[in-house]
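User: Please fill in residues for this 488-position structure.
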């Protein structure tokens, strides 16, 4: 890995840098550009990568209601006391306008007779309000947002891993990255960073399912994460293969049944009762909207959903904890005013949205369709505020950025020459520790022992070292696991 000074290479400066590639990151980038500040997106994988995210549900919006009051009530009823009522109200009110905006940009929604968007019933909703594009909602929303980002000339650095945020006295000054194809460590001077990556559900499966990069970066900046003690499980996960089926199917003729054939709700499946998903009586007009699901199940399991039922085993398909953020997406922490009084302060220039943020929207359980809605609403809010704020201050922190880049270069060299566990073993042990069912104290000791042992690489080249990229994701996930076990 080269240790050439970022300043010697004429350090790049960007007013706003957005970390992520999914709906929250893209919506933040669009809002930022519309506010007059064209951001830089840093993307670990590349254009289109986020379209492969698990399709756990569509988008919730009160399209057949006079207002969003019932949506708010349903959200609070399912999320419980840990929901922030103000956040819930604000987000639910934007459901219809968010959907309308996506339609204007070209989202091809599933529709009903008369041309209005189709609204599906879903667990937790008193009235049908789950809409989208069947099992392709995340993919199609991502595609539409990517088109809008391209139209605005938003640059994306792909195959680029963010290593750490550089701060000076709780103010963002820059970010250090690793360019995977070249192995070069770069530093970008910036006024604002928006964390908008995937969640950390990869802890229970594989890092590519969700490496929690945004949360790991927040930890590196000294932020105490919130909501990490809550790990939602998805009831429509197929046993032994990790395929997650969108809850929308339950509003189109799909049923959860006990193995004796009795109909039950998602609660029974989540409580561990042996259940199956029966899609044999799915509405005829719905089948085309869930064709990707039927093909995946046939390819992976050889099950024809028109003839056979599907065994369920609830799994972790998404997460909701992250960096605590306010209505503008600003990451906040508990500190003191200049007068010495306790106060909630902004880690100046740092924002979080979507799965990287803890907004107070979801509480102990996310209402179906609210995850994508929160991604879009929180992403837009963070982008709008960051764009306006970044025009009002100057760049700074050259010395801190230079020191951070040297520190990350030394860390990469240490990993390269380390004698710890192989990447696969580190991953296996980390997943085992977080999934063992042991007490938090026991699991925490295991995670810290794994972190202390470290990772060793078989590939010691600098160029296109994907093993190094995987190791960095796992190290970040280990920090997130530690945050989970010390929270709540």
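Assistant: Residues filled in for all 488 positions:
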């Amino acid at each position: 890995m080269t240790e050439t000074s970022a300043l010697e290479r004429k350090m790049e400066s960007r007013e706003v840098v957005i970390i992520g590639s999914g709906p929250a990151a893209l919506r933040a980038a669009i809002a930022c550009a519309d506010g007059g500040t064209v951001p830089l997106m840093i993307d670990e994988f590349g254009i289109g990568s986020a379209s492969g995210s698990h399709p756990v549900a569509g988008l919730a919006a009160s399209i057949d209601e006079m207002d969003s009051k019932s949506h708010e009530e349903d959200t609070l009823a399912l999320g419980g006391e840990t929901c922030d009522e103000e956040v819930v109200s604000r987000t639910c009110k934007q459901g219809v306008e968010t959907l309308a905006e996506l339609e204007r940009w070209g989202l091809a929604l599933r529709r009903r007779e008369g041309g209005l968007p189709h609204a599906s019933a879903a667990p937790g909703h008193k009235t049908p309000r789950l809409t989208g594009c069947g099992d392709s909602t995340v993919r199609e929303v991502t595609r539409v947002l990517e088109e809008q980002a391209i139209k605005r000339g938003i640059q994306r650095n792909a195959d680029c891993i963010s290593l750490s945020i550089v701060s000076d006295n709780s103010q963002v000054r820059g970010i250090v990255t690793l360019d995977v194809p070249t192995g070069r460590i770069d530093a970008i001077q910036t006024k604002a960073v928006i964390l908008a990556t995937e969640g950390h559900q990869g802890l229970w499966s594989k890092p590519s399912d969700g490496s929690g990069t945004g949360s790991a970066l927040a930890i590196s900046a000294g932020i105490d994460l919130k909501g990490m003690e809550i790990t939602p499980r998805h009831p429509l996960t197929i046993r032994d293969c990790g395929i997650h089926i969108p809850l929308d199917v339950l509003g189109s003729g799909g049923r959860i049944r006990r193995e004796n054939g009795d109909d039950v709700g998602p609660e029974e499946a989540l409580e561990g009762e042996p259940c199956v998903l029966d899609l044999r009586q799915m509405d005829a007009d719905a089948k085309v909207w869930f064709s990707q699901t039927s093909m995946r199940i046939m390819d992976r399991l050889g099950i024809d959903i028109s003839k056979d039922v599907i065994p369920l085993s609830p799994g972790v398909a998404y997460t909701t904890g992250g960096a605590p953020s306010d209505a503008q997406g600003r990451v906040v922490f508990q500190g003191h005013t200049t007068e010495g009084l306790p106060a909630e302060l902004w880690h100046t220039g740092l924002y979080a949205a979507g799965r990287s943020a803890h907004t107070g929207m979801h509480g102990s359980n996310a209402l179906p369709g609210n995850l994508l809605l929160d991604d879009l609403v929180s992403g837009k809010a963070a982008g709008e505020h960051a764009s306006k704020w970044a025009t009002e201050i100057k760049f700074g922190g050259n010395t801190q950025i230079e020191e951070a880049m040297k520190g990350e270069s030394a860390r990469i060299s240490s990993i390269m020459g380390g004698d710890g566990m192989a990447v696969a073993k580190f991953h296996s042990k980390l997943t085992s520790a977080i999934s063992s069912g042991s007490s938090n104290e026991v699991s925490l000791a295991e995670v810290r022992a794994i972190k202390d042992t470290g990772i060793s690489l078989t590939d010691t080249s600098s160029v296109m070292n994907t093993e190094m990229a995987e190791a960095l994701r796992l190290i970040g996930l280990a920090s997130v696991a530690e945050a989970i076990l010390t929270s709540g």
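For context: Confidence is low (pLDDT under 50) at residues 1-8.
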